[in-house]
Amino acid sequence: MKKPAFNPYLPGNEYIPDGEPYVFEDRVYVYGSHDRFNGKIFCLNDYVCWSAPVEDLSDWRYEGVIYRKKQDPRNPMGLRLLFAPDVVQGPDGRFYLYYAFDFMGLMGVAVCDTPAGNYEFLGHVRYEDGKLWGRKKGDSLPFDPGVLNDEDGRIFLYSGFYFDIPPFMTGMKKLKTGGGYVLELHQDMVTIKKPEKLLFPKEGEGSFPDHEFFEASSIRKIKGKYYFVYSSRHNHELCYALSDKPDSGFVFGGTLVSNGDIFLEDREETDALNYIGNNHGGILELRGEYYIFYHRHTNRTSYSRQACAEKLEMLPEGIFKQAEMTSCGLNGGPLPGQGTFEARIACNIWSSAGTGRYDVKRARKKFADHPYFTQDGSDKAENSKQYIANMKDGSVAGFKYFQIENTERIVISIAGNGKGEFLIFSDTDLHHPVANVPIDCNSKDFKEFQSVLNINSGIHPLYFQYKGSGAIAFSAFTLK
């Protein structure tokens, strides 16, 4: 690759959650919803697309806006929000974008001749009699589409949500949501061929105990089996189920990733290694290797989420092991032990009081004394810098992993008002520091502080713990 690949894998001023990755010809394309920095609600921006060559997942290119909220004739003022989309190449070779406007209760479809061109509105998913799906009595809520063009040309659409939706959100009668559904479309990509059926109950018989379906349908066919990825009721993990058929027989597979590393090493939510919230993503198969795409949360809210990815390990029987959150997910291995690294690539961050959920009421007030990812400037501002703010006594930022070899010094870029030290550790126990960087800072501008680094060669994580008074901002560090 031209350069190391990091998490998040897109620029620091880009907020793309719900990422669905696909290979079309020689590039990987990622489609997601589009949050706004410091947003007050989910998905305020229009759909954009990013892509990278299959041989270099560090080299992401901005493809621009591919679909705008106002293009749908039922949203001419742009007041409804474009939630998580999915894209599939149809039998005719064109590309079809499926989306739902927040909780409006309709599924829209747009089409384009290229993967990342200007998509044009095609229609809303409807029955053969013209009635829109989501408007018939007994319909579930059209939400979070996952689309599959199967090898025999059959088109399957997956959808679902956990909670019932009241009338004031849809403008219609209350829509009940029993879990995850599947229906089959005609090859026109909008007309229902076989009506919806409940495939993943959210409770009771047929549900997956302790990992019941919540939202975020995503589907892939891998080695002849169907892998259905979804977010569970825990609302921080992506799970999967697998079957020999696209519309029946799914069995629970396990957890793919949690945006707090919960369930790894029997970790509970109270011991999460990052601040958690909802999760959504999909599996990428590339050159015989597998990755799970997901998102993390920033700015002490669930409304400014960023795209991350981790490599998956598949066992011989087709089962995936849970991936660990890292700073180097698409890198193909650890990051180099020499160079400058932005603090925004931290995969673990917590305060002296631990972490918590960003999807709770008054989260910003609740976490006022906690560290968090943020940026200077406004949304999409050019040359904006992302960093970790509000590191107080006991705050930790963790980075995984580095190939350490002949690394002797560390330089840390700090701003704010604080006096104390940064202790650097190469283990999660935080017992034996490998560096002690004195800090005495009273500046709005970032200043450098450095120390000797006493660390053995090998693959190591690095944990930065601030001990001292005041609150500081952490921008970057250099290994020499």
What sort of overall outline do the alpha carbons produce when their principal axes are compared?
globular
Please tally the β strands and state the result: 28
Helix and strand pattern: EEEEEEEEEEHEEEEEEEEEEEEHEEEEEE
Beta strand %? 35-45%
Q: Give the N-terminus to C-terminus distance in angstroms.
A: 22 Å
Compute the CA-based radius of gyration: 23 Å
User: Mean pLDDT, nearest integer?
Assistant: 96
- Number of contiguous helices: 2
Taking pLDDT < 50 over at least 5 consecutive residues as the criterion, the unreliable ranges are none
- Percent of residues in helices comes to under 10%
Given the helix and strand composition, which structural class is it? Answer: mainly beta
Summarize the main sheet.
Answer: 9 strands, mixed
Features:
mainly beta; 480 residues; 2 helices; 9-stranded mixed β-sheet
Write up what this structure looks like:
The chain has two helices and 28 strands. The protein has 480 residues and is mainly β. A hairpin with a 5-residue loop joins strand 9 and strand 10. The model has no long low-confidence stretch (mean pLDDT 96).
In short:
The chain has 480 residues and is mostly beta strands. It is built from two helices and 28 strands.
